[in-house]
TrEMBL record:
Keywords: Amino-acid biosynthesis, Arginine biosynthesis, Cytoplasm, Lyase. GO terms for molecular function: argininosuccinate lyase activity. It is an enzyme of class 4 (lyase). It catalyses: 2-(N(omega)-L-arginino)succinate = fumarate + L-arginine. Residues 364-431 form the Argininosuccinate lyase C-terminal domain. Its EC number is 4.3.2.1. This is Argininosuccinate lyase. It is found in: Cytoplasm. Its main location: cytoplasm. It comes from the Bacteria. Residues 7-301 form the Fumarate lyase N-terminal domain.
């Protein structure tokens, strides 16, 4: 078939031009949105008496047919027809002749692609919110059974103070809840219907933008036709939110990798979500977590690619904007896989509770509480810090833990030590004593799990 725009052209475009120019190779996933937009556009044209009802009905029928053809993989896309819009329109013209040519009245591919991308973005954001919610639910469920599971909390990757597994995982829940609310904010901002903006300057046909907006369930109309065809802010915002979400997932993946190392041995990954080494039989590798960490680099890269593509574009539409698709689609696919796989990895893992407990003891994480013990007996904190430092050094030299040291040994450092020090450095007592909002005490984290359950049921 001839190109739909070649009236002023004396000869065909070269094969290389077609190949370089076409987006059909990577935007076929837009077909349901393109067809839906055309369906209501043509309905509006008929309602406004811009085209005949019978033409509109025939076009709508053709749109349904081409939808089913594409869906069942029975439609052959043509590279020479460049993009999804013209491939679908060409089907209508092929099958309906003159009538098919009436669809594109009062519309440009510039507002059409803007519509398709917004419809697609709305769908995928909702999809990712669901996946993100599933990850939060799994983290929260693990936290619920581990409010008394002691583990070392880290700073500088050094054992710092005792916390619980629940407290640690709930930190990620907070990060992921913020990611969710960011996506909702973005959704609300992008919920504008651009059709009617034309190529850039709207149209003189007596169209009804509100009808199309309502039919396609948009909240508002775009307010400026030049902005509407050039705006890709919503893609940047989504990709930025995903990049941050990927950073959160990458941190969690990194911790899973560390916890899975034989030296830490905090976590047992399910065989179904681990891989082996082709040479070292003893290995069980955390490839899934490593890929989550690795793919986050790609997601961040796509965000900067998109920003650089947009930087310096004059208004309004420029073909550069076609470059938004591959990176946005890949980001969407990868982030979806990362969310699902991380959720599966965690849901099927088990935690080595005793190893975590021993690591907390061996890290002398009770030291701060031991210093506070002496403070309560009247010593200035700085002196206590010094004394406990010397005790930790002695315990470390002797290869013992603080709870294994005898009272006599403690008394050589300060006569203020009494037998009650052992109650103070009990690990569960330490976490239980931190019961402020946001702290690790089991009753506080249990309450937070409950708050999260309420939040989840409201999603
Ligand atoms: N495939 C194009 C894109 O993705 C559609 C819009 C083309 N518009 C144009 N005036 N060439 O941006």
């Amino acid at each position: 078939m001839e190109k739909l725009w070649n009236g002023r052209f004396a000869k065909d475009t070269s094969k290389e031009t077609d190949l370089f120019n076409a987006s059909i190779g990577f935007e076929q996933r837009l077909y349901p949105y393109d067809i839906l937009g055309s369906y209501y556009h043509v309905q509006m044209l008929a309602n406004q008496n811009i085209i005949d009802d019978s033409d509109a009905a025939a076009i709508q029928d053709g749109l349904k047919k081409v939808y089913h053809l594409i869906k069942s993989d029975s439609y052959t896309f043509k590279l020479s027809l460049e993009d999804i819009h013209m491939n679908i329109e060409a089907y209508l013209i092929d099958t309906l002749g003159e009538t098919g040519k009436r669809l594109h009245t009062g519309r440009s591919r510039n507002d059409q692609v803007a519509l398709d991308m917004r419809l697609y973005a709305k769908d995928v954001v909702i999809d990712q919110i669901k996946k993100l919610t599933a990850l939060i639910e799994t983290l929260n469920a693990i936290a619920k059974v581990h409010t008394k599971t002691i583990m070392p909390g880290f700073t500088h990757l050094q054992q710092a103070q005792p916390i619980t597994l629940a407290h640690h995982l709930l930190a990620y829940v907070e990060k992921f809840k913020r990611d969710t609310s960011r996506l909702f904010d973005i959704y609300a901002r992008l919920d504008e219907m651009p059709l009617g903006s034309g190529a850039l300057a709207s149209t003189s046909y007596p169209i009804n933008r509100d009808f199309v907006k309502d039919a396609l369930v948009f909240d508002r109309l775009t307010a400026n036709s030049i902005d509407a065809v050039s705006d890709r802010d919503y893609l940047v915002e989504i990709m930025a939110a995903y990049a941050l979400m990927a950073v959160h997932m990458s941190s969690l993946a990194e911790e899973i990798i560390i916890w899975n190392s034989q030296l830490f041995n905090f976590i047992e990954l399910d065989d179904a979500y681990s891989t082996g080494s082709s040479i070292m039989p003893q290995k069980k590798n955390p490839d899934i977590a490593e890929l989550v960490r690795g793919k986050s680099g790609r997601i961040i890269g796509h965000l900067s690619g998109m920003l650089v593509t947009l930087k310096g574009l004059p208004l309004a539409y420029n073909k550069d904007l076609q470059e938004d698709k591959e990176s946005f689609f890949d980001t969407t696919d990868q982030i979806g896989n990362m969310l699902s796989m991380l959720e599966r990895l965690l849901a099927t893992a088990s935690f080595n509770v005793e190893t975590m407990y021993q690591a907390t003891l061996k890290g002398f994480t009770e030291a701060t509480d031991l210093a506070d013990y002496l403070v309560k007996k009247g010593l200035p904190f700085r002196d206590c810090h010094h004394i406990i430092g010397a005790i930790v050094k002695e315990a470390s030299d002797r290869g013992t833990t603080l709870s294994e040291m005898t009272l006599d040994a403690y008394k050589t450092h300060s006569s203020l030590f009494e037998a009650d020090l052992y109650d103070v450095i009990d690990l569960l007592a330490i976490v239980s004593s931190r019961r402020h909002t946001g702290g690790p005490a089991p009753e506080v984290t249990a309450a937070q799990v409950g708050t999260n359950e309420t939040w989840l049921s409201a999603q």
